[in-house]
Amino acid sequence: MSHFYRLVVSCPDRLGIVARVSNFIAGHGGSITEANQHSDLASARFFMRYEILADSIGMSKEALCEAFAPVAREFEMDWALRDTRQKRRVVLMVSRESHCLVDLLYRWTAGELDCEIAAVISNHDDMRKMVEWHGIPYHHVPVSADDKSAAFAEVERLVEASEADSIVLARYMQILPPDLCERYSGRVINIHHSFLPSFAGAKPYHQAYQRGVKLIGATCHYVTEELDAGPIIEQDIHRVSHCHTPDDLVRFGRDVEKTVLARGLRWHLEDRVLIHDNKTVVFA
User: Fold this and answer.
1) Residue 197 above 70 pLDDT?
2) Over the chain, what HEC string results?
3) 254 neighbors 23 (Cβ within 8 angstroms)
4) Closest-CA residue to 98 (of 120, 77, 82, 79)
5) pLDDT in the model for residue 63
6) Which of 54, 72, 124, 142 could staple 77 via S-S, CB 3.0–4.6 A?
7) Residues 179-184: contacts with CB within 8 Å, 24+ apart?
């Protein structure tokens, strides 16, 4: 596989940003293989993602960062430079529903997700054999309704021990504490059905069936302290009709959930998602 540097930038919008960055890369012999830009007129903010052929630039990531720093200061940039040879480490979290976890594990083994899955954490022991068959450590951390703090202290310890860059809630049916959300801000990804807030609680697809809904959807988003209200990465829908049963709706919903989560995670791993306030720019 080719070796790339990925430059992602967010800064106040002004003339000359693209020219300055492109000339900087060209001046160091760099070959830009993919370029994305977006100017948000409402916020006067500029967003950029460049993929640069690493071998063409002739310097290490650290040296390139040092050389680019004056440009970043000039334009007041929030920026990051990533080396594709340094794979992200991801921790998956799951409860009893397996469809999202199984799908991610398949995509990972098929090479569709460019990451290392460092561990799986669950509040149930149901998925252990399947996860360990993939050679991935499995950690069972029960969550007591009487005292969740001890469980989440252990979860945080395991995430730290795994040296995780990102956390994916693959149908993990517990609410993460605010301090964990804040510590991993912009690095925790969740999936939920799009019936919220209309059909909250148990059996949302059965509730939707009783109302005769015509669209089923799912939302992949970053986790914040406010439940299911973080910046949205991806969404999709599936049309249904009066002919479909509650079991059909559940089946369609699982399909949408797993594909939306997989796309969201892939775009996150490829540095295609830039967060600003409670929104995202997605260069998909």
Assistant:
1) no
2) CCCEEEEEEEEECCCCHHHHHHHHHHHCCCEEEEEEEEEECCCCEEEEEEEEEHHHHCCCHHHHHHHHHHHHHHCCCEEEEEECCCCEEEEEEECCCCHHHHHHHHHHHCCCCCEEEEEEEECCCCCHHHHHHCCCCEEECCCCCCCCHHHHHHHHHHHHHCCCCEEEECCCCCCCCHHHHHHCCCCEEEEEECCCCCCCCCCHHHHHHHHCCCEEEEEEEECCCCCCCCCEEEEEEEECCCCCCHHHHHHHHHHHHHHHHHHHHHHHHCCCEEEECCEEEECC
3) no
4) 120
5) 97
6) 72
7) 180/152, 180/155, 180/156, 181/223, 181/224, 181/225, 182/225, 183/156, 184/159, 184/223
Beta partners for residue 8, in sequence order:
49, 80
In this predicted model, which residue has the larger pLDDT, 146 or 44?
44
78 as an active site residue: the answer is: no
Give residues with Cβ within 8 angstroms of 163, minimum separation 6.
89, 118
Please state, in angstroms and rounded to a whole number, the distance separating the CA atoms of residues 74 and 94: 44
Cα–Cα dist 177/224, whole Å: 10
pLDDT of 209-258, one tens digit each? Answer: 899 999 999 999 999 998 888 999 999 999 999 999 999 999 999 999 99
Side chain identity at 99, as an amino acid letter?
H
Q: What is the CA radius of gyration of the chain?
A: 21
Say which of 228, 236, 248, 255 is annotated catalytic: 228
Span 19-38, average pLDDT: 97
Residues 6+ apart with CB under 8 A from 251: none
